[in-house]
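Q: Can I see a sequence and its folded structure?
A: Here is a first one.
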Amino acid sequence: KAKTPETKQQVFVWGRHSAIPGGSQSDVLWPQRIEWFEQNPKGWKKIAFGPDFGGAIDAQGQLYVWGSFGAHSVGPVRVEIQGAGRGQGLEDVQFSAKKMFALTRRGDALSFDDFLNVLQERVAPKAALRKAQENLQKASEEEKAQFEAALKEAELAASHDVSDRALKLKAKVVSGLPRAGWFGWLQGYRGCVQSMSIGMEHGCFVTHQGQLYCVGGNEYGQCGMAPPKQRGPMGALEERRRVEVDPPVRVEFPRTAAPIKRVEVGGRHTFA
């Protein structure tokens, strides 16, 4: 919902409970206002979701992420980017089934391959505490002393809660794409990444010069390359075997085609 001088920017969400910012015990069946977003006076430029996680970028380019892991949730929590892109503001964030991608203001495309594991580490103390409580409830008289000691250890670990601290995530530049600045100049590129579209299994990137690059799943040629011929009969409901394109490939268009301005990916389709 747009921000006006009289009101703070409001964000509403609904749907499956697993990706709700701040966590939810059940599916959200109608629009629910997430007041956490209103605590940031800068406002928000982008919010995106994956299957069980999500992220948002505020107006100053700061990234926040959240996620759900079973009965436990993490965040939203601020991200401190390590490695590539450190200190740069972000323009876009999007998710595949297991990875997070971001676009810097300079035009570098970044990937965070291990962000789910790092995010999940935040719930480990809470999960261990809950398990210790369940074990104590089920323990026999002979086992109680042992499980009581284990519960005290779990309570101590959970008391040092770091869930609100900034999450340090290591980013790397998506190899094979045009780079910003002198990195790109040395590699012979003229124009960095302008925009991107990330789906569950493949992603595409548009450069300032109107070129299109694709990476990821290519079972149906969605990355712009002919996939290997499938062996055996293929019925309408049969799944093709996984075909991966990595690093990104530049998609070739007819000579009469104008420069690409925008790309959108579907589950197994690409539109430009």
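Q: Show me another, different protein.
A: A second, unrelated one:
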Amino acid sequence: DALALAADPFAESLEALVASLPPQGGAWLLCQTDADAAGSGSAAGDWRLWLAHQAGERSFQRFPRESKLAADGQGGVWILTPRGAGSAAGASGAPEADWALWHVSQLGERCLYSYPADARLVGDGQGGVWILCETSEEQDQEEVEEGGGAKEADWCLWHADLGGERQLYTYPRDSVLAGDGQGGVWVLCETDSRQGEDADWKLWHATDESERALYAFPKESQLVGDGLGGVWLFCETSSSGEQEDADWCLWHADDDGERSLFQYPAGSRLAGDGQG
């Protein structure tokens, strides 16, 4: 079998193609492009998708200016765009699903699914994407573990990859998302207390298999995934419970715990380093 595979011209061609591709570590850009730079079939003022590496750049097909992008963590990018020439093969069941979700990589471009125009995207780091959007089909909330509480939910969280799409959980519309780099997603959202107290904002970790409410953080927290399954958060933190004593601290959280590590000035901006 191994000899047969090695002698397969298609397998050899595919192996050669993959080997010829530039390594990951580039950047995807959607930008206005003049006709000379984009090549044949383009008009001045078109918006086109580009992939840039240190060794060079490459242009892909045209996408509208208002398209939304989310890197997939494996060298490709997901694009939610107003429906144009392509037609999606699947349908999310969401109302007014008039935008198409594309996946683009150096191996090709595919129009796959449909989602509403106001859907929010975040890559999962493993080639897929998480989508938070309004969904017409009603979904019963499963009871979460004790202490987790019930989310004030009106939107649904979907996971999609090249193999399909799945409607998984419900979350509030104003939830804050950050991919964990290992196929999951961190969600900060308003969560009702199981003891009947006022709603609080809690940090949830969701995967294809389950979701868990883990920690409490302020609504204004900034989130960025660490690429290794955890998340960094930058937020106002009070050690005494008094507002005037609050500092802005950088936290790290994962499934095993949360830690306040460093202090930085209020108004600082947070971004991951792509290495964890």
